[in-house]
Amino acid sequence: MLNQTSLFPKNTAGYDLHTHSTASDGSLSPAELVEAAMACGVHHLAVSDHDTLGGYHLAKQHVVKKDLGINIIPAVEFSSRWNTRDPDDGRGMTVHIVALHIDPEHAALHELLAMTQQARAERNARIKHKMTKKGWLDVFEHAEELAEQGQLTRTHLARAMLDLNKVSQYRQAFSRYLGEGRPLAVHTRWPNLRESISRINAADGTAVLAHPLHYSLTRKKLLQLCSDFKHVGGNAIEVITGRANKDMIEQLCGIALRMDLQASVGSDFHSPRNGVAQLGVQQTLPDTLPAVWSNWSN
After folding, report:
1. pLDDT > 70 fraction of the chain, expressed in percent and rounded
2. What is the distance between the alpha carbons of residues 142 and 163, in angstroms, rounded to a whole number?
């Protein structure tokens, strides 16, 4: 077991609504993630792996078995396509939606899971083909080993490139090979915003636009994204994320107020050693913003 006390800072807010485990592209098992979150003072944890509830179920089992005092919130992070001209179009750029407090047994959720898992499988097959032509089949196979039985993501591919000395730094895997317009990039037809959010809402979930500033949009386009997101049923945006500084948080608070969207908080945690996003949320939401959990019955 990891020494969480030395690896993680203390969390003063008690909520972390965006985390990943080995069920997708995180480095901690669901049980380790729970223990680490508790060591940080997190009382409400959303295990929001990409396109799977596997991490949530294992985390919940661990909490029940050990009778731990932490609330595990059912969640999934979905990839979706947004078109600046038509939010119903499956073309355009990829944005991420965290579905929070969702009914894990609902048929609409499992329809969306099946759609995104199929899209991911098709993307991985096309990337594998490109890697094979490049003579990098060993890189793809190593990425599969890193993913174990979880969802294979570009994070695993980047780690594999680093492990096999194809890049000298993790981020170079994206800037040189996997990023938009790069040699190993492929178009993925994720469900569009309306398709994704309609199923999240049908399954009694709360649709949250993840890390809005991550997409490097102009302010005009970011406002358009948030407007389209709300127009098709989106509920909230992440105002406090693991990478956000004070100015970024103030900007997102302003957008949430302007768009009448609820505010969510989450570290987008993947690993205690990547030096980017650590578990827990240090800041607190201003009183002017309704928290995403304010209307949850449990």
Report:
1. 91
2. 9
